[in-house]
Amino acid sequence: MSAIALQRQPARAAAVRRVVGRATLFLLVLAALWGLWEGYRWLWMREGWTWPFVVDDITLPPLQNIFGALFEPARVNGPLLITLLWHSALFTAREAAVGFAIGASVGFALGVVLAHFNVLQRGLLPYIVASQTIPIIAIAPMVVVGLGSYNISAWLRVAVIAAYLTFFPVTVNTLRGLHSAEPRALELMHSYAASRWAVLWKLRVPAALPYLFSAFKVAATASVVGAIIGEAPSSIPDGLGGAIINFNQYYSLQPANLWATNVVAACLGIFFFVSVVVVEKLVVRRAPEHLA
Amino acid sequence: MTDVVVSIQKLSKVFGRGNLTALKDISFEVERGEFISLIGPSGCGKSTLLRIVGDIIEPSTGAVTVNGKPARRARLDRDYGIVFQSPVLYDWRTVTRNISLPLEMLGWDRGRRAKRVKEMLQLVELEGFENHHPWQLSGGMQQRVSLARAFSFSPALLLMDEPFGALDEMTRERLNMELLQIWSEIGSTVIFVTHSIQEAVFLSTRVAVMSARPGRIAGIVPVDLPQPRTAATREEPRFFELVTQVREQLHAAGADEVLEEAALQ
Amino acid sequence: MTTIAEAIPRSTLADRVGTRARDWVPSVAVFALGIVAWQWLIPDVFGVQRFLLPRFSAVITAFWDERNALWGAGWFTFKEALGGFALGCGLALIVALLLSRWKHVGDALMPYAIAANAIPIIAFAPITNAWFGLLSPWSKIVISAVLCFFPVLVNALRGLTSVRPESIELMRSYAASERAVYLRLRIPNSLPFLFTALKVASVLAMIGAVVGDYFGGSTSALGVQIQSSVALGQFETAWAAILVASILGIAFYSAIAVAERFALSWHPSTRSRVE
User: Fold this and answer.
1) Nearest-CA neighbor of C208 among C110, C140, C124?
2) How far apart are CA C5 and CA C209, in angstroms?
């Protein structure tokens, strides 16, 4: 009995060591990035190099300016920049999340249909791939205006644009994942005289989960990108895309604001991505057969 | 005055921080031209032992000499060939180019390589498949390519880690015969790891029985069946006697899992 | 002694032609249906307005009338995309080779590369404009390059390091040098992963270049053409320009796909029909 208890202690100690190690590495990377940034600035400004681009407080503001700007008002007598960006981020996040939900559902359904009807797959797949070559930023204003006539709120229209970027990776990976079921496992299901529906839900979809999560990770980022790109040309001021357009106009006066917006946008993208990773860890843990 | 190819002295191997003793105090010698099988229960360390001889893993204590040199020197001098349980062929190379891989690394010129590959293909009876890719071949055929590759540069020593374990009985028996044919023609010394008592006795000049973890040599059974072995050898009374002898050694070494597997065969 | 030929038979020419026809007939049918929908269904049945989606024939007319300007702009933007693609993928390959060599560094940094891939790079376009100037192609090239960099890095690194341990052991048994292990094992092994990423990158590069234009660019760029056409109410020209962007993206992707077929001619997936 005591041998098992003794065995557990090293395992726990090892886990703590791992977490501490990862945290240290994270801090090291942050420190290295900061060092690189300030070092680059210092060196380029000192030497006056103009390649690849001129370095001054406007093109590459000091990091403390950027983080300092967060805690100052964006407009005279207005709220702090960080408050403004927080609300913009929430606005964009809502579009991205809803867009993700729509796009992932549509993508999954489309993948299921294409997997079962080979003719449709051969007919539609090239166009589904081609659809991603259409620059969504060009289409966005038209979608926003077009859906406006149906009395749909602005953010929901942008969510549709986000869904457009999201559905593609999910479709492709759903297809691949559904086809990845082992022939032996399929034969087993046939021996149970399982209906196509049962085969789908009891075998193919569980087998497709790793592929699905791989797609969701890409789609999470795509949904945020889609939301920002959807807002920008459509003159929707409330989200991060609107903030970017706005701060871009005044860039030479206050460069830190645009940089700060970028930092917030980056955090949003990473947050969405990490959320999918966390969900994946929870779901996969409950189904150990997928850990292989 | 025998010619010792592999000499293992007091070899031990411990994994991790002292929790896993895979091998304990192994000592034996392999003479030139021998075919020696290592048999034992799962986890007894026979694959580990093979990899130590091949300098793929380092021992914790003890010494291994191959051809009179330390194992590392022997590896750098390319004194041995290795065959794994899976064929480990390169998908992007044809059968011909897979077989010529070690020859390329040895710096043989094109003409010499082509000639050798042709000979090896004849030896494993895969003429006509020169330009096939591994995924176009069955498991047995892939393993034959793997054999051809291992023997292609006529190494003095051949290490084989359950090469036929994944194949069906009939293919296995046929490949056993082919292996013996290649062995007699090229004259290498072979260390052969297996789970199958029958295979060990059929192929070998000696069978080394290992005990369960920590692995030790529990006993060595000399196989005095006449050479060359044929299909008829499997039906001789002496064959069954030797199989029984090995089985009893395994039983004495605490190898109940091997007996269960043998019963299923 | 004859061997039983257990190998998978290679398909005959007749088989391959027959299956090819079956392959493309559905997509051609869908194409025709799409044109019909665009020409009649959408404008007439659904009553979609001209400023949302002009009739197919109108767009084609504009396409033909403005072909010089459109293809000139397309070529300009394509060069930006190509430059970004080359820069981004090239750097990614070098970094991947380095990180695969020092595996501990690679393993430690991989999560950061994956997270960096989650950043909306597009938001950066105004800043590159500030760096290189609105009219300079370099501001778009940098955006395309960064878009290509991370997917190619992650995939190339995975391809270089996801080699079966036994293959490494085999190379060790041949006393192979590191260079030989890379040339003969790691690099060929990584090609399927690499080409997947290159296909994705080709589309991203083109999109990046066009989107970059929307934050400001030279008038000879495609994105700017689309914007100005919309501003002038010339919706047919705008859609024609969008078509040009799409065609170029597809062409770029197809070029990579063709290269893939050659480089991966040995791969089972390019030969057998994937179900």
Assistant:
1) C140
2) 54
Number of domains in chain C: 1
User: How many structural domains are present in chain B?
Assistant: 1
Q: Average per-residue pLDDT in chain A? A: 86
Name every residue in C having a CB less than 8 A away from some CB of B: 1, 3, 6-8, 10, 164, 166-167, 169-170, 172-176, 180, 184-185, 188-189, 191, 266-268
The average confidence (pLDDT) of chain B is 88
Token look-up 């394509």 returns C78
Establish if B80 touches chain C: CB-CB under 8 angstroms.
Answer: yes
Residue B237 pLDDT level (bands cut at 50, 70, 90): very high
Among C115, C126, C242, the residue with its CB nearest the CB of A270 is: C115
pLDDT at A2 exceeding the cut of 70: no
Asked if residue B254 belongs to a domain, the reply is yes
Alpha helix stretches (DSSP H) within C10-55: 13-36
pLDDT range class, residue A109, cuts 50, 70, 90: very high
Cα B112 off chain centre by: 26
Contact B136 C266 (CB under 8 A): no
Best mutation target among B92, B98, B103, B143 (most C Cβ atoms within 10 Å) is B92
For chain C, which residues score pLDDT lower than 70?
1-20, 268-275
Q: Give the closest residue to B31 by CA, choosing from B171, B156, B116.
A: B156
Of A185-194, B89-98, B248-257, the poorest mean pLDDT is in: B248-257
ipTM score: 0.81
Report chain A residues whose CB lies below 8 A from the CB of C238: 138
State the CATH number of the domain containing residue C247. 1.10.3720.10
Is C18 part of a structural domain of the chain? no
Residue B44 lies in a domain: yes
CATH code, domain with B46:
3.40.50.300
Question: B84 vs C8: CB contact, 8 Å cut-off?
Answer: no
Q: Are strands B206-210 and B217-222 parallel, antiparallel or unpaired?
A: antiparallel
Considering the domain boundaries, does residue C185 fall inside one? Answer: no
Average pLDDT, integer, range A90-107: 95
- Determine the pLDDT at residue B1: 46
Report the C-alpha gap between C115 and C99 in whole angstroms: 17
Which of C182, C177, C171 is closest to B54 using CA atoms? C171
Residue B106 lies in a domain: no
3-state secondary structure of C268: helix
Going by pLDDT thresholds of 50, 70 and 90, the confidence category of residue A285 is low
Residue C239 in domain:
yes
pLDDT of residue A13: 83
Least CB-CB distance to C268: which of B51, B126, B135?
B135
Report which of A118, A130, A126 is spatially closest to residue C27, judged by C-alpha positions.
A126
Please give the residue range of the domain that contains residue B223.
4-74+188-264
Determine the average pLDDT of the residues in B91-99: 92
**Rounded Cα–Cα distance for residues A123 and A106 (Å):** 18
- Kindly tell me if the per-residue pLDDT of A5 is higher than 70: no
CATH ID of A81-291, from 3.40.50.1480, 1.10.3720.10, 3.20.20.70, 1.10.10.60: 1.10.3720.10
Q: How many residues does chain B have?
A: 265
Digit-coded pLDDT (tens) for B45-72: 888 999 999 888 888 888 999 988 998 8
Structural domain of residue C255, as residue ranges? 55-162+191-271
Chains with 3 or more CB pairs under 8 A to chain C: A, B
Reported as a single tens digit per residue, the pLDDT across C197-253 is: 999 899 999 999 998 888 888 888 998 988 888 888 888 899 999 999 999 999 999
- CA–CA separation, C32 and A123 (whole Å): 11
State the greatest distance between any 2 C-alpha atoms of chain A, in Å, as a whole number. Answer: 77
Q: In C, residues 210-249, which contact A (CB 8 Å cutoff)?
A: 210-211, 214-215, 223, 226-227, 230, 238, 241-242, 245-246, 248-249
